[in-house]
Design a protein that fits this description.
By secondary structure, this protein is of the alpha/beta class. It is 47% helix and 10% strand. The protein has 13 helices and ten strands. The strands form two sheets. The chain has a seven-stranded mixed beta sheet, with helices on both faces. A three-stranded mixed beta sheet has the order 5-10-9.
């Protein structure tokens, strides 16, 4: 009995030890959770809405930006203010794959749509004002999708109630700004929208520059070394919003103020960095794609690229084996009553050549890597050109001269050792000036080769057609 009692007593002791360990582990886990929750009292936020032809491209840009922030191990939440009509597949991807917190909102009515200068692509940009409703955070850095982060910028959370960068000497840019969330400010903004506050462009840019009209007179932000948060409004150094156009003049950065942490691309909408054709016209596009390779990759575009490549290769093979043995490269002058036929054939050939160099452009996925995009474009244009060569019995070199010219222009533009952007532009101009006579001569050669005989191009039924091999050279 004594041994049994002692054994039970020993088991009870170990059970109590195990329970105590479990309680301690749970307490540590809970404390860590609270610490983690307390740690992320700030957020990087961006907005997403649909209703424009470029919704998918901005969605891709948004993912790359947020994932690059995550890779920099920023000490803040990543938040997306998404309108309720954004596709569920996109929001689920952002939430599950990118670790983003979502705030679903109703699109804000834009009262400036009837302004004479209103651009409809800015119709829903006032959704950005919902950032002031993120009252669970002490500070929020609001972002556009076309930002490229080079370094961690968590010191921005020490800024005041509103801080922004003046890219334009007199107007701050709303592609990145710091704010202190406040329902009172948000309601006041809604009131200002209702009474029709002045808004030069009808977008978030015009409204915020009007609302914070005294920002230009405020001091420049310098983060306190002790980590405390500032009060008031401040101008941010240009290094937090380095306009890509500043780079293209010198082909290097010359921004002496600020940490040179963020690049922004406020250029023409069709020259955003994610579009494959923007490089090498805008060299920094390749830097953005390097970030994409490290983050979300190209899984959505690669199948389309492979299918298109296979089709173009098939066209090249078929036209190569179906092409006759052409010895007659130019035909005799037609009779006068067939001048109309000659004109029609010339027009058809010229328009076909134009289509061969434009159609492939529209079928390439817009956000594919530039090297893949240009390779696919050149493959597609050469495949369609081979059909024209075979159909109209034309010599290959004149038809492919624009193709060679495009390759040369890409090589000149992508040359990496220019001293500055002016020299680069002059080199491209010089190349175009020298190549233009070759292009014009090729066009003349093509038109000369389209002076077709009636029998050679459109034989009558029942008439004997002389073989091309026995034709007499012109």
């Amino acid at each position: 009995m004594g041994e049994t009692w002692q054994r039970k007593r020993g088991l009870g002791f170990w059970r109590r030890c195990v329970l105590m360990v479990l309680v301690v582990l749970m307490a540590i886990g809970s404390a860590r959770g609270e610490e983690e929750e307390k740690r992320f009292r700030n957020a990087y936020a961006a907005m997403m809405y649909v209703g424009t032809p470029r919704d998918y491209e901005f969605y891709v840009g948004l993912r790359v930006m947020l994932r690059s922030l995550k890779n920099l191990k920023v000490e803040a939440d990543l938040v997306v203010i998404a309108s309720v009509d954004v596709p569920t597949q996109w929001t689920e991807t952002l939430k599950n794959e990118d670790g983003v917190k979502l705030l679903m909102v109703k699109n804000m009515e834009n009262p400036y749509q009837k302004q004479a200068n209103f651009d409809n692509r800015f119709k829903l940009t006032l959704n950005k004002l919902y950032a002031w409703t993120l009252v669970d955070y002490d500070r929020v850095v609001m972002l556009d999708s076309d930002n490229l982060f080079l370094h961690k910028t968590d010191e921005l959370f020490q800024c005041g109630q509103f801080c922004a960068v003046f890219i334009n000497p007199c107007i701050f840019h709303t592609g990145l700004f710091v704010l202190q969330p406040s329902m009172e400010v948000f309601k006041n903004m809604l009131h200002e929208l209702e009474i029709g506050r002045n808004n030069p462009d009808g977008a978030d840019q015009g409204f915020l520059t009007s609302y914070f009209s005294d920002l230009l007179n405020q001091p420049l932000f310098h983060p306190p070394t002790n980590g405390t948060k500032l009060d008031g409004t401040y101008r941010l150094p240009l290094g937090y919003q380095m306009d890509a156009s500043y780079y293209y003049l010198k082909l290097k950065w010359r921004v002496p103020c600020g940490p040179n942490s963020v690049i922004t691309f406020p250029s023409a909408p069709l020259l955003k960095p994610w579009y494959w054709w923007s490089w090498p016209v805008l060299p920094l596009g390749i830097v953005w794609h390097e970030q994409r390779i490290k983050t979300v990759g190209y899984g959505a575009e690669i199948p389309v690229v492979l299918i298109e490549s296979a089709l173009y290769l098939l066209v090249l093979v078929v036209t190569r084996f179906s092409r006759p043995n052409i010895t007659k490269l130019c035909y005799k002058q037609p009779e006068k009553n067939f001048i109309w036929l000659q004109t029609m054939v010339k027009m058809a050939a010229v328009w076909s050549m134009l289509a061969a160099y434009t159609v492939p452009f529209f079928f390439i996925p817009r956000t594919v890597h530039p090297l893949l995009g240009w390779a696919l474009y050149l493959l597609g244009s050469s495949a369609l050109s081979s059909i024209i060569i075979n159909t109209f019995l034309l010599p290959s070199l004149p038809v492919l001269m624009p193709w060679l010219g495009i390759i040369g222009a890409l090589a000149v533009t992508a040359f990496p050792w220019y001293s500055n952007g002016i020299v680069r532009a002059l080199a491209l101009f010089g190349y175009s000036f020298c190549f233009a006579p070759l292009l014009w001569g090729s066009l003349q050669k093509v038109l000369a080769c389209l002076n077709v005989e009636r029998e050679a191009f459109l034989p009558r039924l029942g008439e004997y057609v002389q073989s091309p091999q026995s034709s007499k050279l012109y």
